[in-house]
Design brief:
Structural class: alpha/beta
Strand order of the largest sheet: 1-5-6-4-3-2
Number of helices: 12
Mean pLDDT: 89
Largest sheet: 6 strands, mixed
Number of strands: 8
Low-confidence stretches: 5-30
Length: about 325
């Protein structure tokens, strides 16, 4: 199960591992364990994207938005993920929209693998009064779809699941014009420090705080991406590794050891970056000189939590390869 309570809140998603059932429990058992046995479905629509069929079920309840608005949001998110991975990560996915009465703006998601014949099932708890503008700027749906592209991992590797989705989501949205390059790097610049180890922290497998789970995992991904691109003269990146995992059938409905995922990724890039980094980061705290890294990438803080991007910085080409500029799509 991949859970999501919000990347910038103080709620500790990783603490939910204490409530998770044993590894032998089925995915349906996990859903029931967390209080969701399925809601009464009042409407169903399906669409195709990236070689996949995505079924959207609407549970009973009032929403200010129309079903067409929600389908457009889900489809745009699926398109971003399919663009990043070269196709949608699984052949079939189900999204259940579960209205939260009286709630103004909350959007929360949880994704499971291998439930009811679907390789991926996502439940979205959507506030009754969520607006179209909120959907336009939403990251939750894309984040949840990214979860479908990685096998289900043990609890102590939950940081890889959440960190990867945190890192890929804005890049995937930028790839289809839903975010600017500047927005991607502004988020990384202003939030990535949350992943740095604090006093007493251990490796990522051992320290399951909110910051280390989401942003520690994202920091691992950023450092891996930059390292792969440096070693390959920018011919390969983390995206190539992740696409190889998907092409090998490594979706959320699979229970693979992380070592297999990392080995597939390393073969795809012709490096050993992922396995070597994991050996270090998983067992001990690895601090990163983020100010120096962002300076090399040519990312500097600007007013109102913005950034400026230096085209002459040493790693400007790598920065542009990670999150290429796209014209913003018109909604």
């Amino acid at each position: 199960m991949k859970c999501l309570w919000g990347r910038t809140t103080l709620l500790i998603c990783a603490s939910l591992t204490l409530l998770r059932p044993s590894p032998t429990a089925t995915a349906q058992d996990q859903i029931s364990h967390h209080g969701w046995r399925g809601e009464r479905i009042v409407a169903t629509q399906s669409f195709s994207e990236g070689g996949a069929t995505i079924q959207v079920d609407f549970a009973a309840g009032d929403l200010d938005l129309s079903q067409a608005d929600l389908i457009a949001w889900i489809h745009a998110s699926a398109h971003s993920v399919a663009t990043f991975y070269g196709r949608f990560p699984v052949s079939r996915a189900r999204v259940v929209i579960d209205p939260v009465p009286g709630d103004s703006d909350s959007i929360h998601g949880t994704t499971w693998g291998g439930v009811g014949g679907f390789p991926a099932v996502t439940r979205i708890r959507l506030g009754q009064h969520v607006t179209k503008d909120a959907l336009k700027d939403d990251w939750v749906m894309t984040h949840e779809f990214v979860h479908s592209a990685l096998p289900d991992l043990p609890d102590d590797q939950h940081w890889m699941e959440e960190g990867l989705a945190t890192y890929v989501e804005p890049i995937a949205r930028a790839a289809t014009g839903r975010l600017t390059e500047s927005r991607v790097w502004a988020e990384f610049l202003h939030e990535m420090h949350n992943g740095e180890p604090e006093h007493g922290d251990r490796g990522l497998n051992e320290t399951q705080t909110w910051g280390r789970t989401y942003w520690g995992g994202a920091m691992f991904c950023l450092m891996a991406d930059v390292s792969i691109r440096r070693q390959t003269n920018d011919r390969k990146g983390l995206q190539d590794a992740l696409r190889a995992v998907v092409e090998s059938g490594g979706g959320i409905d699979k229970d693979w050891p992380l070592s297999r995922v990392l080995q597939i990724g390393d073969r795809a890039t012709g490096t050993t970056v992922l396995t070597e980094m994991y050996a270090k980061w998983s067992e001990k705290p690895v601090p990163v000189d983020l100010p120096a890294l962002f300076k090399e990438l040519g990312v500097a803080a600007a007013p109102n939590n913005g950034v400026t991007l230096d085209p002459k910085a040493p790693l400007a080409a790598i920065r542009d390869s990670i999150a290429p500029s796209r014209a913003l799509a018109v909604n």
